Amino acid sequence: MKKVGIVMGSASDLPVVRKAVDTLAALGVPYEVHVYSAHRTPSQAAEYAASARSRGIGVLIAAAGMAAHLAGALAARTTLPVIGIPCKSNTFDGMDALLSTVQMPSGIPVAAVAVDGAVNAALLSAQILAVEDADLAARLDEKRVKDAAAVLEKDAEIEAELRR
Ligand code: RP5
Question: For the chain, what percent of residues have pLDDT higher than 90?
């Protein structure tokens, strides 16, 4: 199976990224994780994206906060799908990173998830790989069924507790 390449702009993004890692691990999707900044280590970030396809990576996830150029900078160097996670920082509540990630000019697409939306970034990357992987698609279907059952269990609990 192809791998997911996860890049974060700073080690301080790891608490968000860990949710993506856990989600991929639970689905049995292989991944690798790196810290490369679009600003502080631009050459390493560019080289990683440029060589990703030849190293068996099928999708890239880029997590960054503030002036979050990482997803766009990776996307500029590859035609692999790139999913950006805008990370919340102390200023602007993540709106800065959201706009920096999502407002890509035509020609270099980035798929942006919600602010700190690492679980959905992982699920979307798995769904992309599942286009060519029926076993992974089945695992994603199973997860949907399990997640729905958990919601209905909560429904029953809350309905019973608050019934008059
Ligand atoms: C971004 O700046 C990183 O992705 C991080 O979210 C933010 C702050 O980085 P640190 O100052 O914590 O390294 O590049």
Answer: 99
Q: What is the DSSP string of 119-158?
A: HHHHHHHHHHHHTT-HHHHHHHHHHHHHHHHHHHHHHHHH
Full-model pTM: 0.96
- Closest approach atom of ligand 1 to CA 65: 6
Please state at what angle helix 14-27 crosses helix 134-162, rounded to 10 degrees.
110
What's the first-to-final CA gap in the chain, in angstroms? 52
pLDDT per residue over 47-77, tens digit each?
A: 999 999 999 999 999 999 999 999 999 999 9
Residue to probe by mutation, ligand 1, list 6, 8, 13, most atoms within 8 Å of CB = 13
